[in-house]
Amino acid sequence: MTQILVNGMLLSANYALIALGITLIFSIMNVLNFAHGQMFMIGGFVVYYAVVVWGLPFPLGLLGAAVIVGVIGMVVESVFFRRVMKNSSREENTMLLAVGTALLLENVALSLFGEKQRGIPPIISGVYRLGDAFLPANRLLVLGISLALIAAVLLFVNYSRTGRAMRALAQDRTATLLMGVDVPRISTLGFGLGAALAGIAGALLISISGVNAGIGTAISTKAFIMIMIGGAGVMSGALLGAVTLGFAEALGYAFFPGSVTYLIIFIGLILFLLFRPQGIMGKPWG
């Protein structure tokens, strides 16, 4: 049981980065970024090429993943989403654009990288013993980095000037505009930060599970599960959804095959949404 708890904790911390990123984008722009998983995938490939192909240190690859994926996110927001949201009031158009962006990034990745699974050697070696559980040093390092980044994002959003502007924009776009906030700039920064978090998550997990060009859809699905559990647009809900999914996976993989685990998770999610469609932390009115 201790091993299950350790695995759940590791999964939860990694998933939290993904959930925070997609929640940040949704709360600011009211857009579900269906390309979030593809941005995770790009972050993994950036680290692969930095560490394995070019022989650069892992921290430099991690920084490169955050910057490159963050810039991609800002370009996508300013070139595509901003124009569509300005010229159309139908939410379906932004959803279709997000799906199209996901397909574009996935097919570009398939053309550039192929279907082969890529990975990097463990960042550090060794195994620690925690009761009757085993904790690889590499996973412990990834856990520590994930927790530090989660804390940094929460501090930034809650206490920095830009973070407060993002929160104001998430609460009332019109009032924020009337207060003199540069809404387009804040939207772009928020989208870029959300994308960067996905890229960092991919960069960290490539040292554990590897990455391939088709992994984006599975990661996006997990992101949507987390925000549906916690409540769309609520950062504390995103963290709660990440913990719930992480421990559900750890328990499921310990007792059932992988496919059966997600079948049970989806059935449980459907039953949960029948009684609480807004999620645990979400409000009934949105």
What can you tell me about this protein's structure?
It is built from 11 helices and 2 strands, in the order H-H-H-H-E-E-H-H-H-H-H-H-H. The chain is mostly helical. Helix 6 (161-171) packs across helix 8. The chain has one domain (2-216). Helix content is 76%, strand content 3%.
Number of strands: 2
From the N-terminal CA to the C-terminal CA, the straight-line distance is 38 Å
Question: Could you estimate the helical fraction of the residues in percent?
Answer: over 70%
Number of domains: 1
H-E string: HHHHEEHHHHHHH
Question: How would you write the strand order of the largest sheet?
Answer: 1-2
Biggest sheet descriptor: 2 strands, antiparallel
Structural class: mainly alpha
What coarse outline follows from CA principal-axis ratios? globular
- Residue share in β-strands: under 5%
Which radius of gyration do the C-alpha atoms yield? 19 Å
**Given the structure, what is the number of helices?**
11
Unreliable runs, pLDDT <50, ≥5 residues? none
Averaging pLDDT over every residue, what do you get? Answer: 85
Keywords summarizing the entry:
286 residues; 11 helices; 76% helix; two-stranded antiparallel ribbon; mainly alpha
Task: Give a brief outline of the structure.
The chain contains eleven helices and two strands; from the N terminus they run ααααββααααααα. The chain is mainly α.
List the helices and strands and how they pair.
Layout lengths: L1 H28 L6 H18 L4 H30 L3 H23 L13 E4 L2 E4 H23 L1 H11 L1 H6 L4 H23 L10 H15 L4 H21 L2 H18 L11
Antiparallel strand pairs: 1-2
